[in-house]
Write a structure and sequence with these properties.
This protein has helices at about 5-10, 15-30, 35-45, 45-60, 75-80, 85-105, 150-155, 160-170, 180-190, 235-255; strands spanning about 65, 70-75, 110-115, 120-125, 195-200, 205-215, 220-230. The chain has about 260 residues and is of the alpha+beta class.
C-alpha cells in the first residue's frame, strides 16, 4: 500500500476524536465539574453531539458523572495510563522500596510527587505502620507554587524551566503570590537542598521535602513527608529531613 504524501496526511482529521479530546482538555482546565450543557456551550457544539462523546468517555472510565447533579469531571484514568509509561514505572519501582524503608524508620508516611500541567501529583506513597499517620491519596495535587513539594521541585530547575513552571502554576491561581518573594523562597530551597516548612494547606502539619535529581542536577520529582507532631517522638523534624535527603540521593543515584 502506497503511503499518502506528507501534504495529504497533514490534512487528515478525526472529528469524533477531536471532540473527545476537546472535552477532556476543557475539564482538565476547569476547577469545578460541568454539565453536558455547559460543556457544549463552552465548546460551541450541539448538546446532542457532546452527549454522544460524554457517554463514551463515561463508559470508558475517563469521566465521572455525579448522579445527583449530572455534573462531569475527569477520573483518574488518564493518570493511571500515564503511570504505565516506562519512565514512570522506573521512577516508582526505584523510589518506592526506599520510601518504605524511610517510612518504617521515621514513622511518617512519605509521598513521591511530580509536576504536571502546573500542579503537583502524588504518584506513589508509603504508609507508616503506626496507630495513625497522614497519607495523601494517589493523584492528589495542588497548584505547584502553593505546595511545599512543588516549590522544592521548581527550585531545582534551569532558569527557563523554572519560569515556565511558575507560569503554569500561576495560570491556575486567582491570586498568585508576589513573584519576587517566591523566587527568594526558591533560591533558599535550592541553597539548602531541602525544606522543612509549615503546610500551605493544613494547620498543624509540617511538610519535609527533598528533590530527586537527574544527572544534570535538575529535579524530576520530590519526596514529601507531611508530619504531625507526636508527643514523645524521638524523631525531630530536622532528623527526618536528614534521612529523607539521604534517601533522595540514593534514588537519584539508582536512576542514573
Amino acid at each position: 500500500m502506497t503511503e499518502a504524501p506528507v501534504e495529504e496526511r497533514a490534512g487528515y482529521s478525526a472529528p469524533a476524536l477531536e471532540k473527545g479530546l476537546d472535552i477532556l482538555e476543557l475539564l482538565a482546565t476547569e476547577a469545578e465539574p460541568m454539565t453536558t450543557r455547559q460543556i457544549s456551550e463552552r465548546l460551541g457544539r450541539s448538546k446532542s453531539e457532546i452527549f454522544r462523546m460524554v457517554y463514551v468517555l463515561v463508559e470508558r472510565g475517563y469521566l465521572r458523572r455525579d448522579p445527583a447533579t449530572d455534573q462531569l469531571s475527569l477520573s483518574n484514568r488518564l493518570f493511571e495510563l500515564g503511570m504505565k509509561t516506562p519512565r514512570s514505572r522506573t521512577l516508582v519501582e526505584v523510589a518506592l522500596p526506599a520510601m518504605e524503608r524511610l517510612t518504617a524508620m521515621v514513622g511518617h508516611a512519605s509521598h513521591l510527587v511530580v509536576i504536571s500541567r502546573g500542579e503537583t501529583v502524588v504518584i506513589a506513597h508509603a504508609a507508616a505502620r503506626t496507630d495513625f499517620n497522614f497519607t495523601l491519596r494517589l493523584g492528589y495535587g495542588n497548584p505547584t507554587t502553593e505546595a511545599v513539594s512543588g516549590r522544592t521541585i521548581i527550585a531545582f530547575q534551569s532558569a527557563e524551566r523554572r519560569a515556565a513552571m511558575i507560569r503554569d502554576s500561576f495560570a491556575l491561581l486567582e491570586t498568585p503570590p508576589p513573584l519576587d518573594k517566591l523566587i527568594e523562597q526558591l533560591d533558599r530551597i535550592a541553597a539548602a537542598g531541602s525544606v522543612v516548612a509549615a503546610s500551605h494547606r493544613l494547620v498543624g502539619v509540617t511538610d519535609i521535602c527533598a528533590p530527586i535529581l537527574d544527572r544534570s542536577g535538575w529535579a524530576i520529582a520530590g519526596i514529601t513527608i507531611p508530619c504531625l507532631q507526636r508527643v514523645g517522638t524521638e524523631w525531630a523534624f530536622e532528623d527526618i529531613r536528614d534521612q529523607l535527603v539521604k534517601v533522595c540521593h540514593e534514588i537519584s543515584d539508582a536512576l542514573l
